[in-house]
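Deliverable D4.2, example record:
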Amino acid sequence: MNVVDLNCDLGESFGAYRMGNDKEILEYVTSANVACGFHAGDPTVMRKTVQLALEKDVRIGAHPGLPDLMGFGRRNMKITPQEAYDIVVYQIGALHGFIQSEGGSMQHVKPHGALYNMAAQDEALSVAIAEAVYKVNPELILFGLSGSELIRAGEAAGLRTASEVFADRTYQQDGSLTSRMEKHALLENDRDAAAQVIRMVKEGKVLSQQGSDVSLRADTICIHGDGAHALAFARHVKKSLELSEITVKSFS
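Output generated by the structure prediction step:
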């Protein structure tokens, strides 16, 4: 039986600025990655997102990013492994406070945006992030790009890891995600996205932009909640998975 977690990045509003369809998206996902204030989110948004996730029985994870609100954490920054360690510990701690105060528990940690992509290829950075997660709580699950340095670092640190694949992103021949700066980085058609995730889960393969298959492991699927048609997209992907006899279920 094929079983997969379905996760989404949430809590990305900030002050008076609203982003995403958090309440509606939570009807379809099993894990929520909550922004911790560095790339998006603020204390009030964090609290409200945690409350919504707990109401829907959706597992909660920290989504630490680079300190770049203006760039939404999607611009590379030259940081040291020690800086990466510090910002990850800080952000996990911030979200943990809200989760604990609401009577919940944290399931996982998934770096955001540029930090995620940098760690996927940078061994020293990924080791620092994995160490930060382990030292805060060795029971946390580390989400990382399937086949990446982050997954290897998490396993070496003694963490449980979840290899992540993306419903709405295209892939390069080396298994990396196509940069958002390039054409065809996103899959806009929900049918194409559903077909891609079903193949990744059942066959462990995805077709790269270069036309060759890439082998990968799919423990959790990311869908993004900030797109123009995010809600319909999430609904279609989950329904397609279930129709293909793939069980959508959180790790816990």
